[in-house]
Amino acid sequence: MYAVAAKGDDGSAALLISNISENSDRKLKLDTGEYTVDKVMTVNEKCEWIETVLPDKIESGSMLYITFKK
After folding, report:
1. Rounded to whole angstroms, how far apart are CA atoms 21 and 6?
2. From residue 45, how far is each of 2, 25, 35, 52, 58 by CA, in Å?
């Protein structure tokens, strides 16, 4: 698993998580503190970003891009 996060000057934040494992799903539990999830995106079979709901796990070989707001 790899992750990178960023915080904007406007109080927004973003998180990119990649599960590079070939055969192991990973549980996802986020402590967002004072933030709420704004948008969740994942990559489909055509390598296009699509909006989705926040899952409870990250499947092997997948990525999540999550934006947050206060």
Report:
1. 24
2. 20, 17, 30, 14, 15
Q: Are 60 and 24 in contact (CB under 8 A)?
A: yes
C-alpha neighbours within 13 Å on the C-beta side of residue 45: 0
**What's the chain's Rg over C-alpha atoms?**
12
Single pTM value for the model: 0.89
Which CATH number covers residue 49? 2.60.40
- What is the number of domains present in the chain? 1
Average pLDDT by stretches of 10, the chain with 70 residues: 94 95 92 94 94 95 95
Task: Supply the range of the domain harboring residue 38.
Answer: 2-69
Q: What distance in Å separates the CA atoms of residue 62 and residue 2, rounded to the nearest whole number? A: 11
Question: In this predicted structure, what is the pLDDT of residue 68?
Answer: 97
